Every structure is written in structure tokens, then in C-alpha cells.
Backbone:
């Protein structure tokens, strides 16, 4: 492997100097190609009329048009061995080594997807990360991690990254959720698994939607208008900051000294305004970190995001499915889209979780992973990432790979009936039956007689339904489960999967 890499680097250096054939930067040593589908391979070429690819028994040729070329490889079976891909032009050749054919998934979102398996400053260690890393010797698992790029002022034509093989050394930089997901799929199907990792902490969903889509939708156009206004006012805002920077800093130092003396939080340091065109706003991250990937053949997407949209759940309810549908449209495939519902945390609103639930219910070929039992109410970055990746893989086995006999979701609220002084709740995804898993009394349920004030309720499982009541309420009209920021509850199915938070008075459904 080491010798092959040196040879590749030598050939690649010579090739770049000659500037003949240049595959797009997604195509490197160690890459994984999607099995059982047509595989586009593309790039640029200088002073060439045609480009030929030889790979896995195939030999394909395409013309060079305006300096660009695209070749589509025929569908291939998965392989567990390393392959070479040879590119030939009019005067030179290039060889990529250790190429695999298997399953390719795009992993995206914000910090909880971005979080690597290894240590990260300011965050708790991932549970059992050292043992997981030590055992992560999987030649057939690889990751391609896109570097952060939010500057739309400079057109992006390539990605400065390489596919990396999963080793104990490399895996500490892999997305933790992505790794646990890939490991499960690899162990189940015994095929190579590639993760294209494109995420960025603290990013709202609108940064991952194209500017063109945002401005074409009347419900989203205000996002574009605010962006345009920010671009217009940025020079004056920057000038005003620069003019008062010294006085602002002096005031901050004085205020900080007072805060320390009075044992209060130190105020935020004044910072220069950010150039909107260097922030990824209004589709900037889509342009620089998603659009570049198209049309690389993928099986589907795993997604963990939403914390940065908690202030406007109704808008997220429209933006999120719009993003899913737009990505599918751009790829030309209705690929599976699997995502994580926000974990319990003091700032994560139940309304945002609710929009995620109904996105899953209303959007074809999606699934949502519930994390009610593996969150941290005091930390927005839960350390228990393994169940998240494994549940995404379980959902993939059903939604993407057709294992219909598997139960991949915890109980999902379906309907309710008022029976005198009780409310009976019905669910889908009861699997082998409803359970508290630990045998304890059901928790997390509240009940109301007016739809405004909710009080703790008694809840019991009866014939795979949950009957909810309270001795102090004679005529209940609504029930909620785990419908608070720091959500809690112990309703599971016997397949070991937690129920999603819900409310029977949801604006998204009619009973």
C-alpha cells in the first residue's frame, strides 16, 4: 500500500505538471464507488480529444468537450479487494489505487454529525471512543471529508481532500455517527462502505439549500432579501466597527472586570461583522459543499441537523422537506434520506422535533431516528453517538435495502380516542409490542382538559395502546408525551426502540 501510494503521488505530480487528464477531486486513491448503479466519473482535460477509463473489466471512452469530460461506468457488483482505475488521454495516463465498489452514503448536517470519534476541545469524549478506535481496523470502510468552505466570492472547482481508509489512527477524525453507521452496514452486508462527510457545526438548514430555490419560493424569499440587505450594509457596518473598535474593547475589558468581581458571566467580546458572502448564508454551503458532489453516485443521505433552527419550527417544517426534495431533484434520484431527531437538551424545542417527525411521515423514502434515550439535557452534543449511527443503519436496512421484516422505528403516534375520563393512544411501529423496556411505570405523559394547561398523567399499556388519565381531570381533551425541551419518557417497543415525542393537539394532523 505504501509503495503504491508513492507511485501514485509520483504519477500524479507528473500528470499535474502536464495538465492533461484531471479527474474531479472526489476521485482519489481509496475511493468507494456505488454498486449496482451507473457510476458517473468526470473531470477536465487539456489538449486531449478523448479520455478513456479502464476499471474492473470495463473500458469506457468519452470525448472532451470544452475541456471537460464525463464517463458513466456500467453497474458493478460489490468487491472486497482493491482495484486500480486507469485514465488514459492522448499523451499520458493516470492510475488510482485501492478503489472499492460497495455502498456510498453522504453524511451531512451540523455539529452532531461533524463531531469526530476522537477528542474535541470543549466537548465531552464520545462514549468508549478509545476502545472503538483501537478496534477500527476496517480496510473496506473509507471516508471522504470535505473541508469547510463558506466563501462564495471565490468560485470553487475542486475539493482539497482525499479518501481515507478506516484505521485506528484515521478513524479518530471520522464522523462518529458516520463511522458507527458505516460499521453496521459493512458488518451486515460484508461490502465496502464509503462515507462522504459534508457537515458544519452551527449551521441552519437554509445554508444547505440553493439560493435559486430560496428565491423562487415565496415562503423563503425573505431569507434571500435579508442576505442581499446584509451584503449592502456590510461595508458601512465594518467601517463603523473599525472606527469604534478601540473604545468597544476598552468597554469590554471594564465590563469583564466588573463581571469577575461580581461573579457574573463575562460578556461576549465585540467582534467585527462577518462578510455575508464569507458566511455560507443563503445557500452558500450548498454551493460549496453539496453541489460540487453532484452527480457522484450515492445510495442515500444520513443527516443530523436542526439545533440552529429551533427559533422557527414552522419555517423549518417547510425548509427541511424542500431541501430533501431539491437534493433528490439535482441528483435525479429519489434516494433514501435518513435523519436524526434532536436529542433532549435545555434549548432544543419540542416543536422542532415535531416538524422532524412529520417530515418523516410526509416525505417518501425517509426515516427518523429518535434519540430520547441517548441525549444529554445539559449538553447540546450528546456523547452517546453509537446508538445514533446504529439506528440510522437499521433504518437504512429497511428503507434503502428492503428488509421489510425488520422494525426500524420506535412507536409513532397515530391517533387518539377520548373515553370518558381517559384518552387512548394508538401507535404505528409497535413492533413486537409496546414496552417500558425496564419494566417501570410509564413516564413522560401529560394530560389537559383545556389544551393549555398540561399536568403529569398516569399512563398504562393496554393491548399495544397507551391509556392516559389523571384523577384531577374528568374530561380530558389532549395528551402530550415528552413534549418539552429536555424531553424524557420511557415508552419503547419490545424491539428496543424509543417512541418519538408527540402531542395529540398537533397542528400537523387531524385526528
Residues:
Amino acid at each position: 500500500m505504501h509503495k503504491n501510494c508513492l507511485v501514485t503521488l509520483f504519477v500524479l505530480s507528473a500528470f499535474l505538471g502536464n495538465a492533461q487528464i484531471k479527474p474531479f477531486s472526489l476521485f482519489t486513491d481509496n475511493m468507494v464507488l456505488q454498486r449496482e448503479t451507473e457510476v458517473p466519473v468526470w473531470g477536465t482535460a487539456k489538449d486531449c480529444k478523448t479520455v478513456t477509463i479502464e476499471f474492473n473489466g470495463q473500458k469506457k471512452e468519452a470525448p472532451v468537450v470544452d475541456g471537460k469530460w464525463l464517463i458513466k461506468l456500467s453497474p458493478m457488483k460489490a468487491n472486497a479487494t482493491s482495484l486500480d482505475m486507469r485514465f488514459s488521454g492522448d499523451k499520458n495516463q493516470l492510475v488510482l489505487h485501492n478503489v472499492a465498489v460497495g455502498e456510498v452514503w453522504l453524511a451531512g448536517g451540523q455539529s452532531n454529525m461533524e463531531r469526530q470519534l476522537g477528542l474535541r476541545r470543549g466537548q465531552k469524549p464520545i462514549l468508549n471512543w478509545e476502545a472503538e478506535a483501537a478496534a477500527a481496523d476496517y480496510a473496506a470502510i473509507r471516508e471522504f471529508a470535505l473541508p469547510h468552505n463558506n466563501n462564495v466570492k471565490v468560485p470553487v472547482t475542486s475539493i482539497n481532500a482525499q479518501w481515507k481508509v478506516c484505521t485506528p489512527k484515521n478513524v479518530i477524525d471520522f464522523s462518529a455517527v458516520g463511522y458507527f453507521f458505516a460499521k453496521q452496514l459493512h458488518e451486515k452486508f460484508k461490502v465496502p462502505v464509503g462515507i462522504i462527510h459534508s457537515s458544519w457545526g452551527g449551521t441552519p438548514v437554509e445554508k444547505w439549500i440553493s439560493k435559486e430555490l430560496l428565491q423562487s419560493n415565496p415562503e423563503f424569499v425573505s431569507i434571500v432579501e435579508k442576505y442581499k440587505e446584509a451584503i449592502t450594509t456590510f461595508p458601512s457596518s465594518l467601517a463603523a466597527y473599525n472606527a469604534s473598535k478601540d473604545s468597544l474593547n476598552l468597554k469590554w475589558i471594564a465590563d469583564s472586570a466588573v463581571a469577575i468581581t461580581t461573579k457574573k458571566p463575562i460578556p461576549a467580546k465585540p467582534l467585527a461583522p462577518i462578510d455575508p458572502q464569507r458566511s455560507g448564508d443563503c445557500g452558500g454551503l450548498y454551493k460549496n459543499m453539496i453541489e460540487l458532489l453532484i452527480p457522484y453516485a450515492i445510495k442515500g443521505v444520513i443527516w443530523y441537523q436542526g439545533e440552529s433552527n429551533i427559533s422557527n419550527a414552522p419555517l423549518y417544517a417547510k425548509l427541511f422537506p424542500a431541501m430533501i426534495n431539491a437534493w433528490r431533484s439535482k441528483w435525479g434520484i429519489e434516494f433514501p434520506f435518513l435523519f436524526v431527531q434532536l436529542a433532549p437538551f435545555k434549548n432544543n424545542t419540542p416543536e422542532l422535533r415535531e416538524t422532524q417527525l412529520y417530515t418523516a411521515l410526509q416525505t417518501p423514502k425517509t426515516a427518523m431516528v429518535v434519540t430520547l434515550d441517548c441525549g444529554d439535557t445539559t449538553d447540546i452534543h450528546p456523547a452517546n453517538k453509537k446508538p445514533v449511527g446504529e439506528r440510522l443503519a437499521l433504518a437504512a436496512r429497511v428503507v434503502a435495502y428492503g428488509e421489510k421484516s425488520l422494525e426500524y422505528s420506535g412507536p409513532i403516534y397515530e391517533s387518539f380516542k377520548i373515553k370518558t375520563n381517559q384518552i387512548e393512544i394508538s401507535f404505528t411501529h409497535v413492533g413486537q409490542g409496546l414496552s417500558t423496556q425496564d419494566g417501570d411505570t410509564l413516564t413522560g405523559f401529560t394530560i389537559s382538559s383545556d389544551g393549555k394547561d398540561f399536568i403529569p398523567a398516569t399512563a398504562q399499556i393496554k393491548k399495544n395502546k397507551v391509556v392516559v388519565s389523571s384523577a384531577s381531570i374528568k374530561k380530558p381533551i389532549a395528551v402530550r408525551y415528552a413534549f418539552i425541551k429536555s424531553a424524557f419518557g420511557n415508552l419503547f417497543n419490545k424491539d428496543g426502540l424509543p417512541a418519538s415525542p408527540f402531542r395529540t393537539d398537533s397542528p400537523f394532523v387531524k385526528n
Notes: The CA atoms of residues 151 and 278 lie 4 Å apart. Confidence is low (pLDDT under 50) at residues 5-17.
